[in-house]
């Protein structure tokens, strides 16, 4: 029976995933070592492949592997049943998004963008060819164009990576532009939104790294014969390497349906030149205004020179942009239900400072939202600007604060003002909320003063998408600060008109477009089950090394679910509930004279080995995993809670019960 190439590659991936799940390499090594030991007698002979296969069969490894594979019979084709076809087995990589065929509307103009391969990724010049089944670093290309987002399949990192994908982009979509009629050449010429490419490298331990962020002006296709063109795109590095080429992609563009009459190349270059001039003039005028505003701010008080007043910030490409342009009103549709859930989502994106080569302090790098979401991690400024954007989308009066934490460490967090004048701080890295009550420095010495619970020490400025305010109070200490933004003696505001000229959506062509959030492609029950099976295996193996038997109590494992659900609910809402039912259920499940111990822990990743190694560093967890005693029963429960952008909160709880022997 011959299989089409795509089915054959899918079957190989399924078998590879299944073998990894069973830790087949470890088992083969054990059997090989044992077989070689047995053959070390006086009449030893060379070990043949047949001998080794017999040893695997004797140990039951081949039978175990085959019985776990469940093949399902397809009931009919997708066209017949009207539903997507089922995968061949249950062991399909859940992170793969299955593409659906779509009919192209001939009355709508589309851009077919193909990536035909990469070359000159010199950092990977010495990288060996990956062996079949070997885990290796991968490149993934992400695209954003006018509210549409796409992702390529991951390919092994190489000097010439096999990045070959096609993406169908709609020129007018979701009410952007005149979607009711066919876009003509003139209307498309005025569409200055670029195609944003973000290239991410994922290493063997699932750590992501931003390789390049590139904005492609696609309008050259409007002057190409038959509305088709092909060219090389040089991707530059990021941060301190933004002037160093990272690699080259070959890109093909095709307009469908083709234009009856193409534009001349001069018209396109003139339009691009006019847009650049208009943007440069607006940015020049804003810079002149910002310098004048800064001089006035310094004249108020000499100590203002040392305050953290951040007007501009560099993005991943080394471009200086006003900080207000990093915040936009972002609505998450049905993906997030409340401001607190939005805060929880942002806190699940990992915190990592921009990488810097050598010493010399913190590398200054704020990320565009697309790069931050694709990478899945960023610095505190990236988290704060995203949370502020989401809170603005939920209708709150939100601002990003720039200041310091303990020991003078620069930090950014979010502030919201209630209609009653109350001030709430939101820590974007943890989703914690703090109510701010200023201390009155003129109060009598014995008068009761509020005790601050927040970790912030000073605040230099606050801003959102249309406001920038610098703190001109005598002290920039947060505990003394009054957040009365209308009071010009406390806060010096920038002109809203000046900010709008360079920060409002569509005001300049240099502003990166705002991407929508994407729903998660993870299946929570399947991801939870997979991780729980891996944790059980690791616990059993660890206990085997200590010559301890492992007996699992499935009922006790199931009871732990309600505790993990309550923990996540508390992180999301700040309200604790469901603990009484969990305690009652455990009391009923643990007989008299027995002891129960439990240890919950929270992770932002789904790597079982990394998580287990972290757990064992806790003496409480090690005590449970290595529990000795009479009638010991172990339990482990994993819950994966998914959020947009494949962010996930992973809760693991280890537990044991045993008979107390005095």
Looking at this protein, list some descriptive labels.
C8orf32 fold, alpha+beta, Immunoglobulin-like, 23% strand, 662 residues, 30% helix, five-stranded antiparallel β-sheet, 3 domains, flat, Pathogenesis-related Protein p14a
Topology, please?
Elements: H1 5-21, H2 24-38, H3 49-58, H4 61-67, H5 78-81, E1 110-119, E2 138-145, E3 148-151, E4 155-156, E5 164-170, H6 185-189, E6 195-202, E7 208-216, E8 228-236, E9 245-256, H7 265-300, E10 312-314, E11 320-322, H8 339-347, E12 350-351, H9 369-375, E13 377-378, H10 380-393, E14 397-404, E15 410-417, E16 423-426, E17 433-436, E18 458-463, E19 468-471, E20 491-493, H11 496-503, H12 524-545, H13 554-573, H14 579-589, E21 594-603, H15 608-616, H16 619-625, E22 630-642, E23 648-659
Parallel strand pairs: 12-13
Antiparallel strand pairs: 1-5, 1-9, 2-3, 2-4, 2-6, 6-7, 8-9, 10-11, 14-15, 14-18, 15-16, 16-17, 18-19, 19-20, 21-23, 22-23
Calculate Rg over CA atoms.
Answer: 29 Å
- CATH top level class name of the largest domain: Alpha Beta
Structural class: alpha+beta
Question: Per CATH, what is the topology of the largest domain?
Answer: C8orf32 fold
CATH architecture of the largest domain: Roll
Taken together, the total number of domains comes to 3
Main pleated-sheet profile? 7 strands, antiparallel
Number of strands: 23
Mean pLDDT: 86
Low-confidence stretches: 71-94
Strand adjacency order, main sheet: 17-16-15-14-18-19-20
Number of helices: 16
How large a portion of the residues is in β-strands, by DSSP E? Answer: 15-25%
In which range does the helix fraction lie? 25-40%
Shape: flat
Function: Centrosomal protein involved in regulation of centriole duplication. Required to limit centriole duplication to once per cell cycle by preventing centriole reduplication.
Domain CEP76 N-terminal: 10-69
Keywords: Cytoplasm, Cytoskeleton
Protein name: Centrosomal protein of 76 kDa
């Amino acid at each position: 029976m011959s299989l089409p190439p795509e089915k054959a590659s899918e079957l190989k991936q399924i078998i590879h995933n299944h073998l990894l799940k069973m830790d087949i390499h470890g088992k083969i090594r054990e059997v090989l070592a044992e077989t070689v030991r047995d053959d070390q007698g006086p009449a030893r002979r060379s070990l043949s492949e047949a001998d080794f296969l017999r040893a695997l069969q004797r140990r039951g490894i081949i039978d175990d592997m085959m019985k776990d594979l469940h093949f399902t019979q397809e009931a009919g084709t997708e066209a017949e049943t009207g539903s997507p076809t089922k995968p061949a087995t249950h062991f399909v990589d859940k992170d793969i998004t299955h593409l659906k065929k779509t009919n192209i509307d001939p009355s709508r103009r589309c851009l077919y963008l193909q990536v035909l391969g990469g070359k000159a990724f010199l950092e990977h010049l010495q990288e060996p060819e990956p062996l079949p089944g070997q885990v290796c670093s991968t490149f993934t290309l992400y695209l954003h164009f006018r509210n549409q987002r796409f992702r390529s399949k991951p390919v092994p990192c190489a000097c010439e990576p096999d990045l070959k994908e096609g993406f169908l982009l709609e020129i007018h979509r979701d009410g952007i532009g005149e979607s009711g009629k066919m876009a003509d050449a003139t209307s498309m010429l005025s569409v200055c939104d670029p195609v944003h490419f973000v290239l991410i490298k994922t290493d063997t331990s699932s750590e992501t790294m931003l390789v390049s962020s590139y904005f492609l002006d696609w309008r050259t296709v409007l002057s190409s014969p038959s509305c088709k063109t092909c060219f090389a795109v040089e991707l530059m590095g990021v941060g301190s390497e933004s002037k160093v080429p990272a690699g080259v992609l070959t890109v093909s563009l095709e307009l469908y349906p083709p234009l009856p009459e193409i534009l001349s190349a001069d018209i396109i270059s003139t339009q691009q030149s006019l847009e650049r001039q208009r943007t440069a003039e607006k940015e020049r005028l804003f810079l002149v205004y910002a310098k004048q505003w800064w001089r006035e701010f310094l004249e108020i008080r000499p100590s203002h020179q040392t305050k953290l007043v951040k007007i501009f910030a560099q993005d991943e490409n080394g471009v200086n942009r006003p900080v207000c342009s990093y915040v936009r009103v972002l609505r998450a549709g049905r993906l997030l239900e409340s401001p607190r859930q939005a805060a929880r989502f942002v806190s699940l994106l990992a915190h990592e400072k921009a990488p810097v080569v050598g010493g010399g302090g913190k590398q200054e790098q704020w990320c565009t939202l697309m790069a931050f979401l694709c990478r899945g991690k960023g610095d505190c400024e990236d988290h704060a600007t995203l949370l502020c954007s989401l809170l603005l989308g939920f209708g709150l009066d939100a601002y990003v604060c720039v200041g310091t934490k303990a020991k003078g460490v620069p930090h950014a967090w979010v502030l919201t003002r209630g209609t009653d004048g109350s001030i709430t701080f939101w820590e974007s890295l943890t989703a914690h909320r703090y109510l701010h009550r200023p201390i009155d420095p003129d109060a009598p010495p014995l008068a009761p003063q509020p005790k601050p619970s927040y970790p912030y020490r000073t605040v230099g400025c606050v801003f959102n998408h249309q406001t920038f305010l610098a703190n001109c109070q005598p002290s920039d200490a947060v505990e003394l600060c009054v957040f009365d933004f209308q009071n010009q003696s406390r806060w010096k505001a920038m002109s809203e008109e000046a900010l709008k000229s360079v920060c409002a959506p569509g005001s300049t062509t240099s502003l990166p477009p705002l991407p929508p959030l994407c729903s998660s492609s993870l299946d929570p029950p399947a991801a939870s089950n997979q991780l729980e099976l891996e944790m059980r295996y690791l616990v059993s193996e660890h206990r085997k090394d200590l010559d301890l038997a492992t007996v699992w109590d499935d009922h006790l494992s199931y009871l732990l679910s309600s505790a993990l659900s309550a923990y996540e609910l508390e992180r999301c809402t700040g309200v604790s509930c469901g603990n009484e039912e969990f305690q009652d259920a455990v009391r009923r499940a643990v007989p008299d004279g027995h002891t129960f111990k439990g240890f919950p822990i929270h992770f932002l990743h789904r790597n079982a080995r990394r998580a287990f190694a972290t757990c064992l560093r806790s003496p409480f967890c090690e005590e449970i995993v290595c529990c000795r005693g009479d009638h010991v029963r172990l339990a482990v429960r994993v819950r994966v809670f998914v959020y947009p952008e494949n962010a996930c909160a992973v809760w693991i709880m280890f537990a044991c019960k045993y008979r107390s022997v005095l």
